[in-house]
Amino acid sequence: MLTRFMTLETIEAWLRETNPERLELLWQTADKVRKQTVGDEVYFRGLIELSNYCSRNCLYCGLRGERKNLERYRMTVGEIKACVLEAKVLGYGTVVLQSGEDPGLDPEVMADLIRWIKREAGLAITLSLGERSEAVFRLWKQAGADRYLLRIETTDDAFMQVIHPGEPHGSRKANIDRLFALGYEVGSGVMVGIPGQTYGILAKDLLWFRERDFDMIGIGPHLAHPDTPLAKVNTNQPDQVPNTEVVTHKAVALTRILCPEANLPATTALATVNREDGREMALKRGANVVMPNVTPTKYRKLYEIYPSKACIDETADMCKNCLGGRILSLDRKVGKGPGARQRNKY
Ligand code: SAH
């Protein structure tokens, strides 16, 4: 049964489903739930990729610290402020400040910037700056940050150890607990089709999203970066989840049904695997948010989490017009204001 109370076995069976009629039922159910809960508004979150320095070595990520053939950058506070003002002029209600796990990002400088954004632009602020100490999470919350994105990447402890070498056991989950306790709106998510991810593991991840009642959940396909260890891993294991658009849509649609009120982005990774209408397809199958890039074009190509990212040459203005047109073509509306998670509508 396709309800928010479906079991782990049911979720796994749907992830494996290939019958076109059954899949049509999945897409329609997710779209119906999306309409009843978060409605027709599609909210824009202006994404600022402020630094590609990273002290971690996540096996899938092109920003991993051990990768030496990548020019590193860290935007100045002045550059970040200019991007924030651009997002405001474009009418976006939220800015997302994202980076690698960059020890050079001073927590106090960030706190000052957060206060400035609140004061001068009045936008909702989402942070996506990796794992930090509780004191730093608190500092940023008190400075005015509203939301924090920290994808779990996998809920499976053994697989976590493989893809996040050196990560202390349970630290992502513990950090997510801290973010909730501090009063952030909390976002998480996973990639679909990381080598070693089985259907069973992915089904458990989706169930965990429901258990933790996340406010936002980002799901995109894993896109192998040739300069990462995962590019060389054999993906022919029997239970391996493929990193295809359709399996990613199944994960997005199931997440919409399991977490009816969550904000779900049509991710850039989905737009990258299907440049023609990747975002529209996700918006039709459960998603309700887009994250147009407002990073200066000269830095975008250096924020190379995976290769050939969609929209790296466009200006922020072009992104807005293109996305706005796509949303209207779906008979949806461009959301106004911050677009925070609304509770108990469903
Ligand atoms: N340093 C921050 C932000 C990471 S980038 C953090 O750790 O939270 C945002 C997301 O990009 C990651 O959470 C991951 O899910 C995704 N990502 C990383 N490498 C990727 C790849 N090769 N393909 C697709 N998505 C990737």
Written account of the structure:
It is globular and about 50 Å long. It has 346 residues and is an alpha/beta fold. The protein has a single domain (8-334), classed as Alpha-Beta Barrel (TIM Barrel), CATH 3.20.20.70. The mean pLDDT is 95. Strands 1, 2, 3, 4, 5, 6, 7 and 8 form an eight-stranded parallel β-sheet that branches. The chain has 13 helices and eight strands. Helix 1 runs antiparallel to helix 9. Helix content is 41%, strand content 12%. Bound molecules: S-adenosyl-L-homocysteine. S-adenosyl-L-homocysteine binds next to loops. Residues 60-61, 98, 100-101, 128, 130, 150-151, 153, 191, 220, 222-223, 225, 269, 305-306 line the site of S-adenosyl-L-homocysteine (SAH).
Q: What's the N-to-C terminus distance?
A: 18 Å
Number of helices: 13
DSSP summary, beta strand count:
8
Q: Which ions, cofactors or small ligands are bound in this entry?
A: S-adenosyl-L-homocysteine
Main pleated-sheet profile = 8 strands, parallel
Helix coverage percent? 40-55%
Which radius of gyration do the C-alpha atoms yield? 19 Å
CATH C-level name: Alpha Beta
Beta-strand percent range: 5-15%
Key phrases:
TIM Barrel, 346 residues, globular, eight-stranded parallel beta sheet, alpha/beta, 41% helix, binds S-adenosyl-L-homocysteine
